[in-house]
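To close the chapter, one final illustration. This time we ask the reader to focus less on the individual chains and more on the assembly as a whole: which components sit near each other, and how the overall shape emerges from the parts.
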Amino acid sequence: MSLLRLLARALLKGPITEAPPDPDRAALADLAQRVAETARGRLGRSLVIREVDAGSCNGCELEIHALGNPLYDIDRFGIRFAASPRHADVLLVTGPVALNMAEALKRTYDATPAPKWVVAAGDCAKDGGCFAGSYAVAGGVSAILPVDLVIPGCPPTPTALLSGLVALLDQAARRG
Amino acid sequence: MTNTTVLLDFFRYRPSAPNHRPWPRYRLEEADWRTMIDIVAVSDWDLLGLWATAGEVHAALRESENAAVVVASLACPMGRYPALSGVRPGAIRLERMIRDLWGLEAEGAADQRPWLDHGRWPVATPLGVAAPRQPERLPYAFQTAEGDGIHQIPVGPVHAGIIEPGHFRFHANGETVVRLEERLGYVHKGIESLMAGKTPQEAARLAGRISGDSTVAHALAFARAVEAAAGIEAPPRAHWLRALMAELERIANHLGDFGAVCNDAAFVIMLAHALALKEGVLRAARDVFGHRLMMDRVVPGGVTVDLDRAQAETLRTLVRRLRPRFAELEALYDATPSLLDRTVGTGVTLASLVHRYAAGGVVGRAAGRALDGRRMPGYPPYDDLDFQVPLEADGDVHARLLVRLAEIKESLALVEKIVDGLPAGPLIRPVPEQAGEGLALVEGFRGEILTWVRLDEKGRVARCFPRDPSWFQWPLLEAAIEGNIVADFPLCNKSFNCSYSGHDL
Ligand code: SF4
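The assembled structure is written out below.
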């Protein structure tokens, strides 16, 4: 299979979408629409996210990663992940806050320009989850930072993450 | 020179611990422990793990030739034990971990610096005699490299991508990496202390969250260790369903890693296609087992899910649709010289180092180390299933990709065989509430996981030590990047894809 053939086929056949009906699909289309409308109005067509793992088991990272795959393709809504907190509107934080990560998390927050939002993604980020009470854990994200939104789940599915981001945009629009 | 002492012969006449299964655990005197170290120095025994319980250290050893496994234990009333790191470098970080968590000192250790303890916890030696203290950042002395024009590049703990945190300290001369030193422990959550005192079912939730990408494999290793300690076997149908989930997990992760390595070589289209295939696997897992990552499906005693006819068909369809599309990606990789140019000869791990560290999984098998926990020691149902263990010799990024690609094909075939051969019967059996000790070795997508469990008289977890494969792979990444250009680090790192959480515990 040459690259050209693969590209040509992708062009002719259109984007990859699963044949069987998928429960996530309708929800996704609906969300996509709402994200696009709100993000455009509020943040001038784009929302930039900086992801911070503050002690996660890496399960949450897998699902955040999935947002970038061709089936969710978060980029098309103007939502993208930035390498630097200095370019970010939103800190998307996963995991219970490990005490060994607390300072790095705080510093990442301080480096993010206002206005900024903090989203705690996953049951661990919510309240420490099954790691709460450990000598090595501060608790959920709110133990260290002001949290604007919690997206529960272990891990939250990509669809849940997307609906969470939409909710955040709605909230921001109302506040602004 | 290699020694001819047979592992079991050395231990045969030492006192053994009762109720340690399936392999024996021997209690050594200090003199015997020292003799053991001398023999390890000249043998090819693998060090599979090193951990502590209150006032005692334990080392798991394996002789590959005859698949013999033993655990050697040494009581350390004075809080010290002779170090193994002088003869097995894989012990270096484990000894540092034991000192940080338990306060037991390895005498003559190759590295005296702290490891998981960054000074941030309100207690020192939390698992031993916990000593309250004022948290403050501990200074850390990185190793140095000197020479004309050598500069340092610190990276992390927060990285640029959506990945776990850790610190990398590069010493570079121009573009070339002279030395890489890792500093880990940032996501230490105290998992071992959280498991203690819990019922096996409660602790299994934690086992499945040691490293989320290996949730099935870690939960399986924990369940098998508990079952060994309690002296039971899961029902046959549970064995097969566990393997089914483990192979789906392997396929999903290998697809993601394959795409990610190509992406780091600036071949983005491969990532898009590989992730689309991976997503198909996760959705099938959701449809069939009710969770995309299959968390909490493997539990001590068996499994919590079943497979009906329609679900079996879902998985057959998944494999049927995935296989030809995967073959296209494989062919594309093979036919793209600009991609091969980045992967061939990059990030080489020497076979000798892989053997000294007993590095398992893709990292080991890409450098000629033909070990796979499903084969040796082996566990059901793999003894009833026909599969190959792919092997490469060159130890570079390319070899690691080839092993992954070949393993995806093997696992796809295994999924079909398991679905077709699934025996009937119960899914789970009760775990008796009694004392015992168990050890399990399970092959996750990353390599061999060792989990050791001690149950108390009420059948609760008194102590659990899960050793992720990453412990023996992270150090090899440091060696693999030496002499490569800084820009190739992401590529090398991805081709290893070690777990931070699994290692940091
Ligand atoms: S919420 Fe679940 S998946 Fe996410 S970090 Fe916590 S344990 Fe892992």
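Chain B touches chain A through 59 residues (CB under 8 Å). Residues 237 and 423 of chain B are 5 Å apart (CA to CA). With these observations in hand, you are ready for the problems at the end of the chapter.
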